[in-house]
Amino acid sequence: MNTATPPTKPATSLKAASHSAHEGKTAQSTEMKALFCPRYGSPDVLEVRHLPKQTPKAGQIQVRITASAVSQADTMMRAGTPFFARLMIGLTRPKHPVLGTGFAGVVEAIGEGCERFKVGDKIYGETALDFGANAEYLCLDESSLLSHQPEQLSDAQCAPLCDGALTAWNFLHRLGEIKAGDKVLINGASGSVGSAAVQIAKAAGAEVTALCSKPNHDWVAEIGADHLVDYRNSDITKSDQEYDIIFDCVGKLSFGRCKKILTPEGYYLSPVLTLQLLINMLATKCSKGKKALFSATGLLPVPQLQGYLEQLEILITNGQLTTAMDREFALEEGAEAHRYVESMRKKGSIVLRP
Ligand SMILES: NC(=O)c1ccc[n+]([C@@H]2O[C@H](COP(=O)([O-])OP(=O)(O)OC[C@H]3O[C@@H](n4cnc5c(N)ncnc54)[C@H](OP(=O)(O)O)[C@@H]3O)[C@@H](O)[C@H]2O)c1
């Protein structure tokens, strides 16, 4: 993996930059390009617009973005689903219409009082509910979830770290209390969260069984899976094997089906919230036996997430964790990138290049 294959055809559905005041002009230094979502809907609603480039206020840094991620969360934000999420992201249309949360880039300017970063630093991070990362520039508080790019990874590999790897760490270490010798089953092992989970579980000393389709078996074995199962022609829930942790990264199994292949105190973990999972969580909350658990990683306090990033960076430095990369898209191909993510066929992560 880690190969980036830029698409050759430009997206035809994406409207060109259309701000009338700037027609016929190239972006000037006071402007920037951004992927703009004026209303909830299909990928066709996305536009590239020229917007004013913000200058950093006191306590803020300005980042020139070199790569930004497009994740499942970004497609949900664009679609405005699930509906209850609109209470946070905007009831009738996106409150923050520039999409994207995970990014990598270079510090271009710093506001008064900033001490954590200096101009020229290569950093990565995420904006959480402020969005705005699918753009050429971004201003955000220096106290946000940010870190220096580890030299072992490219900028494109850093941009999605706060989605896949951070989520996998939160689920396996905090919720699943993973330890050496655990038998861990990872469903969706070829996705962004799953491919990070395979590596994090291996680094913790677990024995990892990965569920993904056959064409992905070779590279998922290369990143550390001990056993591979093709979910398309085998029902893992009928296996004789028991697992200490089942991490259903894509929410396609269920606690009910997995119960019989969990050890007596095993955990069923899923980052995909459903009503059924909520009921399972409540029902198993006080039991000493098998538990079902969910967490919204991005809503945890920044200092806690920053601590997890530090742990991830130790694995990266030790060569135990990398970001599996699929394709790169230009910012103008944002709609195509969203369609690809929604296909549920991506391998690892994708990024937009502004
Ligand atoms: N709660 C949180 O904190 C949190 C944080 C981040 C993400 N999430 C959620 O986690 C989920 C996974 O995100 P992601 O970025 O890892 O997804 P992703 O990268 O888009 O997942 C793509 C992978 O899904 C696999 N897949 C598709 N259908 C499958 C099936 N029926 N069974 C098993 N695998 C299947 C595909 O594997 P094959 O091609 O090999 O079939 C593909 O590699 C999303 O719903 C996302 O919203 C939650």
Task: Describe this entry's structure for a reader.
The protein is α/β, with parallel strands linked by helices and 354 residues long. The chain has two domains: 11-161 and 323-353, Medium-chain alcohol dehydrogenases, catalytic domain (Quinone Oxidoreductase, Chain A, domain 1); 165-297, Rossmann fold (3-Layer(aba) Sandwich). Helix content is 24%, strand content 24%. It is built from ten helices and 15 strands. It has helices spanning 72-79, 86-89, 155-158, 164-175, 192-203, 217-222, 255-258, 275-284, 302-317, 334-342, and strands at 31-36, 47-52, 60-69, 102-110, 122-126, 137-141, 145-148, 183-187, 207-211, 227-229, 243-248, 262-269, 291-293, 325-330, 349-353. The strands form three sheets. Strands 3, 4, 5, 6, 7, 14 and 15 form a seven-stranded mixed β-sheet that branches. Strands 10-9-8-11-12-13 form a six-stranded parallel β-sheet. A two-stranded antiparallel ribbon has the order 1-2. The longest helix is centred in the C-terminal third of the chain and has 16 residues, at 302-317. The two termini are 23 Å apart. The relative contact order is 0.17. Mean pLDDT is 92; it is low at 1-28. NADP nicotinamide-adenine-dinucleotide phosphate is lined by residues 71-73, 163-164, 167, 187-188, 190-194, 211-213, 216, 231, 249-252, 271-272, 295-298, 341, 344-347.
